[in-house]
Structures are given as structure tokens and as C-alpha cells.
């Protein structure tokens, strides 16, 4: 039995985790851990989060055994009581991990190496180091951070930039446990900055968010869901040129016009989540995808 576990929480919270192959444990330990797995009642995959809170603990757990594969992602408030002894044991066995530590999902659980190690999704430059502002929502980057996408384009988030997750529609935060938690964190930072700077087309910015999510270890299905969310409901803009005469000389000024669509309804969020949970969606198809029940 293979067990992969990750504990994270809060914007600046450390990531801890462990990988356990019970076949390599001493006999007594193996029996104890496998008994906790059976007693946990975790026989089906699920993802469940309570109301967003920056200091909430988040658990990501994959159990890979001969007869089944189970993938669970939830916060402390949503963890089923029978699973608490198992999680407590895994917490004790956990050690500090880099942000690239990945818990495999059903689509790629055989590949437990961090997705960010794959050049196909680009790479991050530096670490996200930020401080909370007095309002309890905004964060200011203390050190520069960047993402280099698969086309080798660089997306900078300079020191002093203020981020708050606003570039991801709040209605979808319940699906990811908040934009600055777990493996969405790095992608959220560069996406926030790009949606403020607006020096590239919004379509390109949102595709970058998908690729950065995959680089950060977000599973294929969840990354596609959030790409659809930002593409359909996230920030949009057009850039127009305004020509005037200043001091007797021709002057060209770029004017950014905001065209962000209305937020989704709760019913639309449920429909979208259900659709992506039951359909394998290629990210290239997201811009033209029609989800039944979504009117945008």
C-alpha cells in the first residue's frame, strides 16, 4: 500500500508531508498503519472544504492499494471523524516539504514526482515571500517572484506587488480552499499581478494561470476547472489607442477598458464542478467549451 500525505494551510504556512510504502515498514508498523486506513472508511475519493479561512489546515491524501485508489482533499473541519486517527498518524510521520511536493490524483497517481519538475509546464523562479496587510486580506510581496511558462515567456511578480486572490472568481474559492492555499498559491500570485498590470491579452493571462497551476502540482481536472472559471468569469479587458494633440504634438495614449463579466451563480458553480468531475477536458478546448446549464 502506498500512501502520500500533505498538510498545508494559510498563505505563509509550511508544507509538510510524507510518502509511505507500507511494504517497507516493520511488521508491527505496517499492520498498525494499514489498520488505520481500513478504519478510516476512506473508500471513495472526494474534495470538500468549509468556508474559506487563511489559517485553516488542509489535508491532501492519496491511498494506492491493489483493489482501489482513493484521493481525498479537505480541510480540518471537513475531515470525516473515522479518518482522524489515520491523519493524526500521518501528521506525526510528516516532515517539511518543498512547495513542489505533490499528492497524485486519479489521473496520474503513478507519477508522484512533482509536476513542477516537468519542463512541459514551465518553472517558477524564487519563492513566494509575503506579508499580511492590516486589512487581513491583501498581501504584499517582500521578494520578487516569477513564472516562466512553457513558451519561455516570463511572468514577473515584483517585490511590493499587492495580491489578494481577486483575479480568481470568489464563487470558485470553495473548490480550491482559497487561492493562496496548497498548490494554487504560486499560480494565484502571478495571475493576480498579470490581471492588474494588463499588458497582455486576458486570454493569454488565463491560459498562463492553467499552466502555472499544473507547474505547481495541481491535478489536470482541477486545473482545467479553474481555467474555465477564470476564462468565463475572471477579469477581461481591451486596450484602445486614444490619439490626441499635446503641446502641438501628436500623442497616443493606451486606454484599458474593463470588460469583466458578472460572477457566476451558485448553481452554475455546481454545474461546472460536476461537469469537470465527469469529463476529461483538454485545456486547449476550454475557450470554446459549452457547459450545459451555464448560460454565459
Can you offer a commentary on this structure?
With 296 residues, this protein is an alpha+beta fold. The protein folds into 2 domains: 2-113, no CATH class; 118-288, no CATH class. Helix content is 28%, strand content 25%. The protein has helices spanning 27-40, 84-93, 173-176, 185-197, 202-215, 220-233, 266-278; strands at 2-8, 15-21, 46-48, 58-65, 68-75, 95-97, 123-125, 130-132, 139-141, 145-148, 154-157, 162-163, 237-246, 249-258. The protein has a 6-stranded mixed β-sheet with strand order 3-5-4-1-2-6, covered by helices on one side. A 3-stranded antiparallel β-sheet has the order 7-10-11, with helices on one face. It is elongated.
Output the keywords.
296 residues, alpha+beta, three-stranded antiparallel β-sheet, 7 helices, elongated
Beta-strand percentage range: 25-35%
Structural class: alpha+beta
Biggest β-sheet: count, sense, barrel? 6 strands, mixed
In DSSP terms (H or I, runs of 4 or more residues), the helix count works out at: 7
Cα shape: elongated
How many domains, in number, for the residues? Answer: 2
Radius of gyration using CA atoms only: 21 Å
Percent helix range: 25-40%
Short structural description:
The chain is built from seven helices and 14 strands. With 296 residues, it is α+β, with helices and mostly antiparallel strands.
Write the SSE topology.
Elements: E1 2-8, E2 15-21, H1 27-40, E3 46-48, E4 58-65, E5 68-75, H2 84-93, E6 95-97, E7 123-125, E8 130-132, E9 139-141, E10 145-148, E11 154-157, E12 162-163, H3 173-176, H4 185-197, H5 202-215, H6 220-233, E13 237-246, E14 249-258, H7 266-278
Parallel strand pairs: 3-5
Antiparallel strand pairs: 1-2, 1-4, 2-6, 4-5, 7-10, 8-9, 9-12, 10-11, 13-14
Helix pairs in contact: 1-2, 4-5, 5-6, 6-7
Amino acid at each position: 500500500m502506498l500512501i502520500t500525505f500533505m498538510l498545508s494551510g494559510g498563505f505563509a504556512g509550511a508544507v509538510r508531508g510524507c510518502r509511505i510504502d507500507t511494504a517497507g515498514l516493520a511488521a508491527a508498523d505496517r499492520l498498525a498503519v494499514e489498520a488505520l486506513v481500513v478504519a478510516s472508511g476512506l473508500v471513495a475519493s472526494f474534495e470538500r472544504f468549509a468556508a474559506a479561512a487563511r489559517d485553516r489546515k488542509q489535508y491532501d491524501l492519496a491511498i494506492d492499494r491493489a483493489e482501489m485508489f482513493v484521493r481525498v482533499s479537505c480541510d480540518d473541519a471537513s475531515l470525516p471523524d473515522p479518518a482522524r486517527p489515520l491523519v493524526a498518524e500521518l501528521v506525526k510521520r510528516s516532515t517539511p516539504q518543498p512547495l513542489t511536493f505533490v499528492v497524485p490524483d486519479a489521473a496520474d497517481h503513478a507519477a508522484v514526482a512533482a509536476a513542477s519538475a516537468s519542463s512541459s509546464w514551465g518553472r517558477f523562479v524564487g519563492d513566494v515571500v509575503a506579508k499580511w496587510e492590516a486589512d487581513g486580506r491583501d498581501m504584499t510581496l517582500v521578494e520578487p517572484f516569477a513564472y516562466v511558462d512553457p513558451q519561455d515567456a516570463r511572468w514577473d511578480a515584483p517585490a511590493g506587488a499587492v495580491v489578494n486572490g481577486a483575479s480568481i472568481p470568489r464563487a470558485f474559492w470553495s473548490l480550491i480552499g482559497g487561492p493562496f492555499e496548497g498548490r494554487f498559491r504560486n499560480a494565484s500570485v502571478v495571475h493576480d499581478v498579470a490581471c492588474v498590470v494588463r499588458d497582455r491579452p486576458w486570454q493569454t493571462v488565463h491560459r498562463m494561470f492553467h499552466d502555472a497551476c499544473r507547474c505547481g502540482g495541481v491535478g489536470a481536472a482541477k486545473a482545467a476547472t479553474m481555467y474555465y472559471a477564470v476564462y468565463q468569469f475572471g477579469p477581461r479587458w481591451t486596450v484602445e489607442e486614444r490619439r490626441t494633440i499635446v503641446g502641438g504634438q501628436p500623442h497616443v495614449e493606451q486606454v484599458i477598458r474593463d470588460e469583466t463579466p458578472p460572477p457566476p451563480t451558485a448553481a452554475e458553480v455546481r454545474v461546472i464542478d460536476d461537469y469537470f468531475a465527469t469529463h476529461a477536458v483538454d485545456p486547449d478546448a476550454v475557450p470554446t467549451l459549452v457547459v450545459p446549464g451555464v448560460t454565459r
